[in-house]
Design a protein that fits this description.
This protein is α/β, with parallel strands linked by helices. Helices cover 29% and strands 21% of the residues. A 10-stranded mixed β-sheet has the order 1-22-2-21-20-3-6-8-7-19, sandwiched between helices. Strands 23-24-26-28 form a 4-stranded mixed β-sheet. A hairpin with a 6-residue loop joins strand 14 and strand 15. Helix 5 runs parallel beside helix 6 and helix 11 runs parallel beside helix 12.
């Protein structure tokens, strides 16, 4: 596969591995909750690369949908390269504004994006997806970068979105679109067939749940008076050749045997086909003598659909009034918003003040949520800006009773005054808002965190920048197991910090250098640990006063702090 080469790539391609884990410091005064917790909706203020690394122990492999709106690199955004990479050339880049006259601005943009995209991929769940909003400046380079990081087989679609309606007079051709580049974490070919999700009766592709094109209602008829309502016949074959999707289908009316056309297979496995057949969902043409087709019902909006490659429109009804179409549905499913709408809404929230340039509209993000998340999904935006993603999550939860969670990361100084403040206002309610839900408040909570000091084992020897018990437990648990850390399982009194697939894990530690010098794993402590539940016990402590044979008898693997980090061998 062709790869993209750029200045700094040699130094940056594994930089995410060298980034230190940082503490996440709770700010109760800036949060909107009684109990500040990493299990809450999150707003994190700090460098987004460091924040993403800090989130890994808790959220690695758990995020269903990533929505990011990075700098477009037009040369007019005044973004600054800030990744502290061990390279003289890149050290020279640090802290300098990237403008239109910068001959290396595309190299810098790629160097800025690559480690972040790698960490975002680690945070995504196996069926997760990432949506990246860009314009024409970097879309082609980003596509090649994503092919390398996510694999080209996981490319889903490049959606063209109508970002503006106004005409620009300072260009040869007035641009009205932006791009939304979509990749799945794991878009295996065998899962591209339609299937029902476990959470709801929706047909889905891996990482996506698609609603139908709402303007296709005229194609849905009911010639056989099916009690399930209007329907249309769709082909039962699909592109591709897979053995488990190739089988004989016998027309029960004629006895004729049908196989998939050349280069295609049936859209479901045979057992699903039989279910459809028994449910009167399979047709064999108007005369009953043709190959199989699938009945798709209009009222099963949430059971079948397709995604358009062009998201064009703002829900305007003028061209649809003369058609017999569900107007409310058209408004909902054809309203993708524009940056103008996003700006107008943000000004409503901030009492008419213009706080942010070109904020994304919540309609756009809600459409992504409908397409690529379930009601309990985690949504991450590491270029949070004005907080549109959080607003959209709360609004969608209000609309469908969902319990989606958002994680926002914002590195700029306005993380509290704009990003978090917007979320506070939409939760509590905006008295002057036109929308009733927004006026009354969308409800919800969030916890505000700032990035703290890096967690460095050597610093424990000196008693400097010592992490809290919970932060150190989070770091050690993830480092030792590579699995998700659950803070609610911690029992600090007996040292228990969680259970992995192979271990029960204990940590004896206090952020106190004198305590660390005086304490150790003793025989009494070892014997007082809760009975092993069939797993080996992994114990972190400053020292041990117990022999290895006794540890083996007690099913304990000992790891000394601060000199050793235990890594499970896979």
């Amino acid at each position: 596969m062709p790869t993209l080469h750029f200045k700094g790539k040699t130094f940056i391609q594994n930089h995410h591995l060298a980034v230190k884990y940082h503490q996440l410091v709770p700010r109760k005064d800036l949060s909107l909750t009684e109990n500040v917790s990493l299990s809450d909706n999150l707003i994190i203020h700090g460098d987004n690369l460091l924040a993403l690394k800090a989130l890994l122990p808790t959220y690695g492999g758990r995020v269903k949908c990533v929505c990011i709106d990075p700098p477009y690199n037009t040369g007019n955004e005044n973004w600054v390269y800030n990744d502290n990479v061990n390279s003289p050339m890149m050290q020279e880049w640090l802290g300098k504004v990237v403008d239109k006259d910068d001959l290396t601005r595309h190299d810098k943009w790629l160097c800025m994006m690559m480690p972040k995209l790698k960490l975002l991929r680690e945070l995504l769940s196996a069926d997760g997806a990432i949506f990246i909003t860009l314009d024409d400046t970097e879309i082609h380079r980003c596509k090649m970068l994503m092919d390398e990081i996510f694999d080209e087989n996981n490319f889903v679609i490049n959606i063209v979105w109508q970002a503006r309606k106004s005409v620009q007079n300072d260009t040869d051709i007035s641009l009205s679109h932006n791009h939304i580049l979509v990749y799945a974490k794991n878009r295996r070919i065998e899962e591209r067939r339609l299937k029902k999700s476990n959470e709801a009766q929706w047909y889905s592709l891996p990482g996506f749940v698609f609603y139908p094109l709402m303007l296709q209602k005229s194609k849905f008829l009911n010639p056989d008076n099916d009690p399930r309502g209007p329907w249309k016949a769709d082909p039962f074959d699909a592109p591709g050749v897979r053995k488990n999707l190739e089988y004989d289908i016998i027309n029960p009316n004629t006895g004729e045997v049908f196989n998939p056309p050349l280069g295609r297979h049936w859209r479901t496995e045979e057992k699903n086909y039989i279910d459809f057949l028994n449910d009167n969902r399979i047709l064999f043409g108007k005369q009953g003598k043709s190959g199989p087709q699938l009945k798709v019902f209009w009222d099963e909006k949430k059971e079948y659909g397709e995604i358009e490659t062009s998201w064009w429109g703002d829900g305007s009804m003028e061209s649809y009034l003369e058609n017999e179409i569900d107007i409310e549905m058209v408004e909902k499913f054809t309203n993708y918003g524009t940056t103008t709408k996003g700006s107008q809404l943000l000004q409503q929230i901030f009492d008419g003040q213009k706080k942010f340039e070109n904020p994304k509209p919540i309609e756009l993000i809600k459409h992504i949520l409908i397409s690529a998340s379930a009601k309990n999904s985690i949504i991450l935006d590491s270029f949070a800006g004005s907080g549109t993603t959080a607003h959209a999550v709360l609004d969608q939860n209000k609309e469908d009773g969902g319990n989606r969670k958002f994680i926002l990361v914002e590195c700029e100084d306005y993380a509290n005054t704009i990003t978090a403040e917007r979320v506070r206002r939409v939760i509590k309610g905006v008295p002057t808002a036109k929308n009733e839900n927004l006026r009354n408040g969308l409800g919800g909570t969030f916890s505000f965190f700032e990035l703290g000091d890096p967690i460095e084992i050597d610093s424990l020897l000196k008693g400097e920048n010592m992490p809290s018990y919970t932060e150190f437990a989070r770091y050690l648990f993830y480092t030792a197991t590579g699995e998700e850390f659950d803070e609610s399982k911690v029992v600090e009194d007996n040292g228990y910090i969680g259970e992995s697939r192979n271990y029960e894990i204990y940590l004896f530690y206090k952020p106190d250098i004198e305590w660390l010098k005086k304490n150790a794993l003793t025989l009494d402590i070892a014997r007082s640990l809760p009975s092993a539940k069939g797993k080996q016990r992994l114990v972190f402590a400053p020292a041990k006063y117990i022999d290895d044979q006794t540890l083996q008898e007690l099913r304990i693997d000992f790891c000394q702090l601060p000199y050793e980090i235990y890594r499970m061998k896979k």
